[in-house]
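User: Predict the full complex structure for these chains.
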Amino acid sequence: MKEYKYKINGMKFTVSVGDIVDNEAQVEVNGVSYKVELDRKPKASQKPALSQSGHTNHGNVAAAPVASKPVAKPAVSAGAAEAVKSPLPGTVMSIDVNVGDTVNAGDKVGVLEAMKMENDIRTTRGGKVTKILVSVGDAILEGTDIMIIE
Amino acid sequence: MSKQEEKISQLIEKRAEARLGGGQKAIDKQHDRGKFTARERIAMLLDEGSFEELDMFVTHRCTNFGQDKKHILGDGVVTGFGTIEGRLVYVFAQDFTVFGGSLSETMSLKICKIMDLAMKMGAPVIGLNDSGGARIQEGINALAGYSEIFQRNIMASGVIPQISAIMGPCAGGAVYSPALTDFTIMTKGLSYMFLTGPSVVKTVTGEDVTQEQLGGASVHAVKSGVTHFAAENEEETLALVRKLISYIPQNNLEETPLIDCKDPIDRLEDKLNDIIPDNPKRSYDMYEVISAIVDDREFLEVSKDYAKNIIIGFARFNGQAVGIVANQPKVLAGVLDSNASRKGARFVRFCDAFNIPLVTLVDVPGFLPGTGQEYNGVILHGAKLLYAYGEATVPKVTVTLRKSYGGSHIVMSCKQLRGDMNYAWPSAEIAVMGAEGAVGVLYAKEAKNSDNPAEFIKMKEEEYRDLFANPYQAAKYGYIDDVIEPRNTRFRVIKALNMLATKKVTNPAKKHGNIPL
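Assistant: Here is the predicted structure of the two-chain assembly.
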C-alpha cells in the first residue's frame, strides 16, 4: 500500500492506494475509501502469484525455488508441493529422511525437542521429499517450514 | 355414518395429511438427497412408539407475497416428546420438505412450546436442524421467532441439557441456537453451518469456497471446534445423541444416571506400571490410560479432532458417569494453548452445571510460548480453564501421571482450586518449572564463574531433577493427597468418587461470575 500526502489550497490530504485489480483501484482519502477507475489499461500479470507457493517468507531458502519456477502455472505448483510445518516452537533433534525419499502421509520425518518433550514431526501428505529447509540443532518457530514434499 | 364418525374420519384424514409434510414428491426428493424426513429421524432417535406429537395442525399466519394461499399442516417442524432408554426428552425436528424447513413465526412458537415444557418438567431438549433459514416472506416475524428460541436456549442453559443435531443446512442467524446449546453433532456430507454463505463471502472477501469448505462437518470438527461431534451418517448422528443422553442427568438438580457395572472395581492394570517411558522426554498415548481405568474401556470422546492436545469426554467409574479431562502428551507435547484451554473450560463448566464429577489426568509441560499464543490472548483463554475448575463444585479427582509444571499445574485442577482428591503416580514431576529453566535462573551467576559452565549446569540440572522432579515435594505439603501405584488407579479413583458422593459445596450468592470470556 502506497501512501501520499498532499496539500491543496492549504488543506491536507492523506491518500493511500490499496489493491489495484484490473483497472480499478481502492483509494483511501483522509480515511474515506473510494473505488477509482484508472484510465490506462493494466499491465498484464503485474502480480505473479508469489504467495501461492506458501514458503516465500523464509528468505534465503525459499527464494530459489520461487525464482526458478515458471510463473505460468502457479495453481498447479501450489497443489503439488506442501511444506511440513513445525507443530511447536523448539529445536530440531533429528531429520529422519533425505531429499529424494518417498514418504507416506502420517510418516515420522523427524524429531523436534520442544516443551520438555521429544515430539515426532509427521507429514500430513505423502510424496517425494524435494527440499529440507532446516538442520539439526536449529531453533525454529511454530509453523516454520521444515521440508517440502511434492 | 353418524356425524361424530364423520368428524373422526375427518381427523384421521387431517392427521394423514400432516404426516405427509410437504407431500410425497417432496419426501421422495428428500430421500433422493440421501436424507431421512423429520418424522423418520424422530422415530430413529426415540424409543420405539414413544413419540407424542404436538401442534400437528399449526399453520402460518403470513399474508405477504401470496403466502396466504400456501399452507401446510405443521408448518415445517415436527415437535413433541418421547423417551430415550425410558427417560423423558423433548424433540423438535425441522422438516425440509415443507418450505425448505424455513423458520416462520409459528414454527418458532412450536419450538418454544416444547422448550417451555422441557423447562417446567426438567428434561433435555433435542433439536434436529434441517432448515434453509428464515422464511423471508415473514420478514421481521421470522427474526423475532429466532430470538424467542435463542432467549429460551439461554434461560435453559445450565438448567436442562440441550443437544443440537445438524442434519442439513443451518445458516445465518439459525446457527446461534446450536451454538448456545450444550452439544452440537453434525452429519458429514449432509450438513453445513455458517453465518454468511459462500456467495456473500465471495462478494465481500473474494474468497472462492464451497459450502463444505466453509462450514462442513469436518471443518467445524477440526478447525473451528464449533461442532463437538462429526457423525458419518444420520443413523450414527442419532445414535450419538442417545449415547450422549445416557451420561447426562435430566436437569441441574438431578444426579447422573447410575448403571450396573460388571467391570471389577479393583481391576489391576499392570501395563500402567510401565506406560510412562523412562526417558521423560518420550511421549505415550493418554487414550491407553483412559481406557485402562474406566468401566468396560468405554469412553465417549467430545471434540476429538479439535485441539487434540487435550482430551475431554464421558466415561463411567463403577457405573457412575464422570467427565474426563486429560492432557495428551502425544500431541504438541500435551501443552495447554488457547484452543485446548477453551475446549477444556467449556467441558468442565458443562459437567459442573449438571453435577457430573470430574476426573482429571495430568501430564502437562506448560503453556505454549510464543507471540502467536500471546497475541491470541492465551492469558484469557487459560484463565477460562482456571476459572472453570476453581468455580466447579462437583467432586474433583485429579491424578498427575507425569509432568505438572508452573501455571499449567495450577490450571489442571490442583489442590488449591478446591481439588478434592489429588493423587500422583511415582513418575510425577510437580514443580514450578523444568530443570533447564530453573537452573538457568537459580545458577546463572555461579555458572558463569565456574571453570566449566556447561558441566556445572548439567550437574545442577541433575540435582534439581532429583530434588524436585517428583511427587514428594508436593506430597510433603499436602498438595498431593497420596502417591499411588499406577496399576491401581482405577480402584483409587472409584474409592475417591464413592467417598465424594455426598459432597456439598456452595459458591457465594451472586448474579453470575465474570468468567474471562
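Residues 171 and 194 of chain B are 5 Å apart (CA to CA).
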